[in-house]
């Protein structure tokens, strides 16, 4: 008798969402839940309008404004246009309001008054779970990389680019290739004073920023089981920072208790049926994982980042790394660059690092438990504890509900009494849109990314937990929170903070970050640039011949490729000048730097060769791909890619090629010498200007076919209408609670003001 295949949780989620298997191993996957926000959706709605398409499932879609909404008081809020001062931010929020009205979508606006609270808009990854829109066993997407958050419920949740947003709006499906299974087991119990944030920072430190690329990671083990839902969300949230497609925690009684009574959670008989189904959602005993990692909870302590990637973690009791101790030259260069950017010296004790700002908030740590933890530290420091002079410490709740709840518990009073700035909900300082750091400013931040320029041009970020952030605010420097929690602490301003000699963090001395180009350049005649392809239309890719620009850095993130301040556009074109903006421009002098794309012949580059891994990691912003294409780059070659970026390229008729390190190095050397490359997709090979042997590459056949023929994914998926309709019928019978926004009745959409009286247990 054939044994039943043992499946992981991910296998199960995948299997039940397969609408159709295509010949080449790709599958059409049904999407149960689609979250939409103002920054990554305007171009998608524009696409729908241009093609005359409608939104297939408004009842499975939920929109909110979060990235661009100011966090200044809303006490006298009159209108969006009076409240949002930045015209581009306003235009994006208004565009979303227009789009939800035109397409009839459920929407949480700044002025919503449901739940008996004044404002329920908030960070998309906070409101989804708190409303019960996020449910176990579902597929959830959003034009946002931190959609991984929702995996905490045992849902398959992942970020997508704007083209994919359009695809989901139009078809409620995506064409996907299955990822690999990884399990991270956390043994034992967490020591006192160690937060979920420390856990996930530690994990990213172990795996590396690209360590989970191509994988869906299930978090398991006693330490995970002991976590609350909010803790699990913080962990899954940052799984994308290790490159994971998604993070997962199998649902259990903690999950069920959290969801009971949420406005959009199933009710009555459907609730019982749903709970029964959710109980089946776990990896089978003995199921095979492609990668297994075990971490011991006792090894984790309060953790902070020192550098410019979330993998750059160190214990708060540790010091910055010393590049001189590094045998590997690439690693040494990386550390030097990151320390220079951060304005830090080698071997500097982390607890000596003074900070200018503190940010408590974001989709990682802007929930009620996070605020409680931060407030606990402030309380423990005594009634006279104050935010250190000269430090601006912001507390930004993740949603209107979190804010209301915190106020009901008196947390706002704890914060404001101690001199913290209590704000309105939104993404705020996490991404440098609604709130920003000044150049050179250093922030102790509970957010998820410490990339160069993440919190504003030339900003410096240290990631840490909410409790650690509160401690840093009181001390004015990075601090081991356990000191606050174990005994009464003197937080009177102590002697002036001393910096390690040679470290100067004043604005004028922001170091120039070394160029990403390591070797001397060979000057060449300008070569002709091919026709630039722009716009949303799908363009066929057959071959490209031209100059290739070399890059020699690992983990080049999409914040560096395309800084957030330019994500406020409503368009996909005209973005070439913003490509690598902060490394191409010296913000002090306004002049161009010597960055490779500023120098002939690379100003005409059509190909980019990065010889280090994880190119395009981080944010889902498709602007990074659009800007490259606008610049004229249609092919990127690297040892590995951030998955969302890789997909975004292909959606825009660009070709990302994965090659072994050695091949990338050979091609990067050709590029250094200014030699042309010819990339031939039909033949799957790269011909070299040196006349040296061509290098062949592999690409998945469906992608190749679509690129060669300039086929539009949405049209192709829509051709599967019968299969999709059949799946929807099956879904209605099997999981009826997923239709009609889980039947949680907020009244008719959009713009409903009907009140809901559901009681949520916090
Ligand atoms: C839209 C953008 C600012 C984003 O939210 C997108 C993302 O993470 O995918 C980010 O945090 O970089
Ligand atoms: S990562 Fe930051 S900007 Fe992106 S959704 Fe979360 S809070 Fe908002």
UniProtKB/TrEMBL annotation:
EC numbers, comma separated: 4.2.1.33
Biological processes per GO annotation: L-leucine biosynthetic process
Enzyme class per UniProt: lyase
Entry cofactors: [4Fe-4S] cluster
Keyword Iron: yes
Pathway: Amino-acid biosynthesis; L-leucine biosynthesis; L-leucine from 3-methyl-2-oxobutanoate: step 2/4
Entry keywords, A to Z: 4Fe-4S, Amino-acid biosynthesis, Branched-chain amino acid biosynthesis, Iron, Iron-sulfur, Leucine biosynthesis, Lyase, Metal-binding
Presence of the UniProt keyword Metal-binding in the record: yes
Catalytic activity: (2R,3S)-3-isopropylmalate = (2S)-2-isopropylmalate
A Pfam family the protein falls into: Aconitase_C
One GO CC term on file: 3-isopropylmalate dehydratase complex
Gene Ontology molecular-function annotations: 3-isopropylmalate dehydratase activity; 4 iron, 4 sulfur cluster binding; metal ion binding
Cross-referenced InterPro entries: 3-IsopropMal_deHydase_lsu, 3-IsopropMal_deHydase_ssu, Acnase/IPM_dHydase_lsu_aba_1/3, Acoase/IPM_deHydtase_lsu_aba, Aconitase/3IPM_dehydase_swvl, Aconitase_4Fe-4S_BS, Aconitase_4Fe-4S_dom, AconitaseA/IPMdHydase_ssu_swvl
Domain Aconitase A/isopropylmalate dehydratase small subunit swivel intervals: 541-661
Domain Aconitase/3-isopropylmalate dehydratase large subunit alpha/beta/alpha positions: 11-476
Function field: Catalyzes the isomerization between 2-isopropylmalate and 3-isopropylmalate, via the formation of 2-isopropylmaleate.
Family, as annotated: Belongs to the aconitase/IPM isomerase family.
Descriptive protein name: 3-isopropylmalate dehydratase
Organism: Fomitopsis schrenkii (Brown rot fungus)
């Amino acid at each position: 008798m054939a044994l039943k295949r043992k499946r992981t949780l991910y296998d199960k989620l995948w299997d039940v969402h397969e609408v159709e298997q295509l010949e080449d191993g790709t599958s059409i996957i049904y999407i149960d839940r689609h979250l939409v926000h103002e920054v990554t959706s305007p171009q998608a709605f524009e696409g729908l309008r241009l093609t005359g398409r409608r939104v297939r499932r408004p009842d499975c879609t939920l929109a909110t404004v979060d990235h661009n909404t100011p966090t200044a008081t809303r006490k006298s809020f009159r209108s969006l246009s009076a409240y949002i001062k930045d015209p581009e931010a306003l235009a994006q929020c208004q565009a979303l309001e227009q789009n939800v009205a035109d397409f009839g979508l459920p929407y949480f606006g700044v002025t919503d008054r449901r739940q008996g609270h004044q404002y329920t808009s908030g960070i998309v990854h906070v409101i989804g779970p708190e409303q019960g829109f996020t449910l176990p066993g579902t597929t959830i997407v959003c034009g946002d990389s931190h959609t991984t958050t929702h995996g905490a419920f045992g849902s398959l949740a992942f970020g997508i680019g704007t083209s994919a947003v359009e695809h989901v709006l139009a078809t409620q499906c995506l064409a996907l290739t299955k990822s690999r299974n990884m399990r991270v087991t956390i043994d034992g119990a967490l020591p006192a004073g160690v937060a979920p944030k420390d856990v996930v920072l530690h994990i990213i430190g172990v795996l590396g920023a690209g360590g989970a690329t191509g994988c869906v990671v299930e978090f398991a083990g006693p330490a995970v089981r002991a976590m609350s839902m909010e803790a699990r969300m913080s962990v899954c949230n940052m799984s994308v920072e290790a490159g994971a497609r998604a993070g997962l925690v199998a649902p259990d009684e903690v999950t069920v208790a959290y969801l009971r009574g949420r406005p959009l959670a199933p009710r009555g008989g459907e609730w019982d049926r749903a709970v029964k189904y959710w109980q089946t959602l776990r990896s089978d005993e003995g199921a095979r994982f492609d990668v297994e990692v075990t971490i011991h909870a006792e090894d984790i302590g309060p953790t902070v980042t020192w550098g410019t990637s979330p993998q750059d973690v160190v214990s708060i009791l540790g010091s910055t790394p010393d590049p001189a101790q590094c045998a590997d030259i690439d690693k040494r260069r990386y550390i030097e660059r990151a320390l220079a950017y951060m304005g830090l010296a080698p071997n500097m004790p982390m607890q000596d690092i003074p900070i200018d700002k503190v940010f408590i908030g974001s989709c990682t740590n802007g929930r009620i438990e996070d605020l409680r933890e931060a407030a606990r530290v402030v309380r423990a420091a005594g009634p006279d504890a104050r935010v250190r002079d000269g430090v601006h410490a912001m507390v930004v709740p993740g949603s209107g509900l979190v804010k209301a709840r915190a106020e009901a518990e008196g947390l706002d009073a704890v914060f404001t009494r101690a001199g913290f700035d209590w704000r309105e909900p939104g993404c705020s300082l996490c991404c440098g849109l609604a709130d920003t750091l000044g150049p050179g400013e250093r922030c102790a931040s509970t957010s998820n990314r410490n990339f160069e320029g993440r919190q504003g041009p030339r900003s410096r970020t240290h990631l840490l937990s909410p409790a650690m952030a509160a401690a840093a605010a009181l001390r004015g420097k990075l601090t081991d929170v356990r000191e606050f929690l174990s005994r009464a602490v003197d937080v009177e301003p102590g002697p002036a903070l001393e910096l390690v000699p040679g470290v100067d963090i004043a604005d004028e001395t922001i170091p120039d970050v070394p160029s990403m180009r390591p070797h001397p350049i060979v000057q060449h005649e300008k070569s002709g640039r091919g026709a630039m392809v722009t716009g949303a239309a799908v363009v066929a890719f057959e071959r490209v011949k031209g100059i290739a620009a070399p890059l020699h850095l690992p983990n080049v993130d999409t914040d560096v490729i395309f800084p957030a301040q330019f994500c406020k556009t409503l368009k996909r074109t005209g973005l070439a000048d913003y490509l690598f903006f902060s490394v191409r421009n010296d913000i002090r002098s306004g002049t161009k730097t010597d960055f490779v794309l500023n120098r002939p012949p690379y100003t005409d580059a059509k190909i980019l060769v990065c010889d280090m891994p994880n190119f395009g990691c981080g944010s889902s912003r498709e602007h990074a791909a659009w800007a490259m294409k606008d610049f004229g780059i249609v092919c990127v070659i690297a040892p590995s890619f951030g998955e969302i970026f890789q997909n975004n390229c292909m959606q825009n008729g660009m070709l990302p090629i994965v090659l072994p390190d050695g091949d990338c190095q050979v091609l990067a050397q050709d590029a250094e010498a200014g030699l042309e490359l010819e990339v031939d997709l039909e033949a799957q090979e790269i011909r070299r200007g040196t006349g040296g042997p061509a290098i062949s590459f592999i690409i998945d056949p469906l992608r190749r076919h679509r690129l060669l023929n300039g086929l539009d994914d949405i049209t192709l998926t829509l051709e599967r209408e019968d299969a999709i309709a059949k799946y929807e019928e099956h879904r209605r019978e099997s999981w009826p609670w997923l239709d009609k926004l889980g039947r949680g009745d907020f009244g008719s959409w959009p713009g409903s003001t009907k009140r809901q009286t559901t009681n949520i247990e916090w």
